Amino acid sequence: MSPPNPPFSTEIRRYGTAAIEEAARLIGEGQPVAVPTETVYGLAADATSATAVARIYEAKGRPGFNPLIVHVRDLEQADTIGTFDDAARRVAEAFWPGAVTLVVPLREGSGIAPAVTAGLPTVALRCPSHEVMQALLAATGLPLAAPSANASGGVSPTSADHVMKTLAGRIPLIIDAGTTPLGLESTIVKVAEGISLLRPGPVSFEEILSVARLGETTMPASGIEAPGQLESHYAPAKPLRLNAREAEAGEWLIGFGAIAGDDSLSTDGNLAEAASHLFEALHRADAQNRPRIAVAPIPEHGIGLAVNDRLRRAAAPRQATVA
Ligand code: TXA
Ligand code: MG
User: Fold this and answer.
1) d(Cα 180, Cα 157) in Å, to the nearest integer?
2) Which ligand is nearest the CA of 146, by number?
3) What mean pLDDT is predicted for residues 303-313?
4) 48-62, 81-95, 136-150: segment of lowest average pLDDT
5) Which atom of ligand 1 is nearest to the CA of 41?
6) What b/e sequence results for 5-35 when a residue is b if at least 16 CB atoms lie within 10 Å of its CB, and e otherwise?
7) Is the CB of 184 under 6 A from ligand 1?
8) What pLDDT, on a 0 to 100 scale, did the predictor assign at position 229?
9) Dihedral of the CA atoms 84, 85, 91, 93 (nearest 10)?
10) Which ligand places an atom closest to the C-alpha of 151?
11) Ligand sitting nearest the alpha carbon of 190
12) Which of 12, 88, 208, 239 gives 191 a disulfide partner, CB atoms 3.0 to 4.6 angstroms apart?
């Protein structure tokens, strides 16, 4: 997709009062602004404005059928947008603010632009804990739609530089507050007639289930059913080989634990550290002058499940439907 016309000159501003004021002003004008959250950088715009939401899709070059997460200050604001049953409320109370997104039935008269939910009867809501996103939510007073701040199909950004790599010239402003602490997108669960995991993330499904206290759990047959979970969603530019114990010719090896590699997700085999380094390591691998990437095996438990989910997507062949 071609950049918006006329193209922007994208400014990076250090987080502070002036940056938040400028971001709130732009959002008031219907522009999208890149801001850090505790998971990854998001591209935030007024969720109640069809024009503003269209600009998010335009800047990302994102297919219109892929719905966006609405970010809110607290559960009280979330209540005006979605319907929370007892289980959904328990999950929100336990994990918000934080890295859990709840997909719940959309409330009638919510004011959310239809393009945000892509016509679905449900809405994805998240109350982030990061100071910068919270400051922006407070300054605007608006619910903010925010997908990850990368061009569609690319690797999620964990720093302002990553955002620049794919969105320079397409958005007016990036607020820089360094690298994001968790480095992986939020866990998404759907709570409507049971509970199901749509995307694994920093908070495990087991933890969420124990708080939801729902007897019956419905797991979609495919494992993942978020419309945006197209196989190749998290692709770096180069081919990727998984479960590699050593590098083959032409490969840049991303190690873990005892497998040292050219780079490492965590030299002492710490899974949380691996999660926070994953996207950065993929960005770095893309920048090397070797044609292929290989990644060491990552244990399939805890947050390792979310790391492997992103790695399998990164390794999947690109689909024509993804820009
Ligand atoms: O950590 C995160 O969640 C980051 C930060 C910026 O908050 N955001 C993020 O957004 O990862 P995005 O747009 O890259 O991913 C949102 C996912 C997509 O896979 C989308 O399909 C799914 O949420 N989603 C949104 N609304 C949905 C709905 N009503 N039903 C099912 N899935 C939904
Ligand atoms: Mg994304």
Assistant:
1) 9
2) 1
3) 92
4) 48-62
5) 6
6) eeebebeebebeeebbebbbebbeeebbbbb
7) no
8) 53
9) 60
10) 2
11) 1
12) 88
Q: How confident is the model at residue 321 (pLDDT cuts 50, 70, 90)?
A: very low
3-class secondary-structure state, position 79: helix
Please name the residue whose Cα sits nearest to atom 21 of ligand 1. 228
**Residue owning tokens 């522009």:** 31
Q: Where are the beta strands (DSSP E) in the chain?
A: 11-14, 33-36, 41-46, 69-71, 100-105, 122-126, 144-145, 173-176, 187-191, 195-199, 240-241, 251-255, 263-264, 292-295
**Total count of residues recorded for the chain:** 323
Torsion sign across C-alpha atoms 294, 299, 301, 302:
negative
Among protein residues, the one whose CA lies closest to atom 18 of ligand 1: 228
Distance 110 CA to ligand 2 centre (A): 24
Checking if the pLDDT of 162 tops 50, the result is: yes
Strands 173-176 and 11-14: parallel
Integer Cα distance of 279 and 293 in angstroms: 13
Q: Provide the pLDDT for residue 26.
A: 98
Q: What is the pLDDT of residue 27?
A: 98
Ligand 1 proximity of 60 Cβ (cutoff 6 Å): no
Is the CB of 163 inside a 6 Å radius of any atom of ligand 1?
Answer: no
∠288-307-45 over CA atoms, to 5°? 85
* For residues 270-298, average pLDDT: 94
> To test ligand 1's pocket by mutation, which of 38, 69, 182, 310 has the most ligand atoms within 8 angstroms of CB?
69
Residue ranges in 103-174 assigned as alpha helix (H) = 114-117, 131-140, 160-167
- The side-by-side arrangement of strands in the sheet containing 240-241 is 240-241, 292-295, 251-255, 263-264
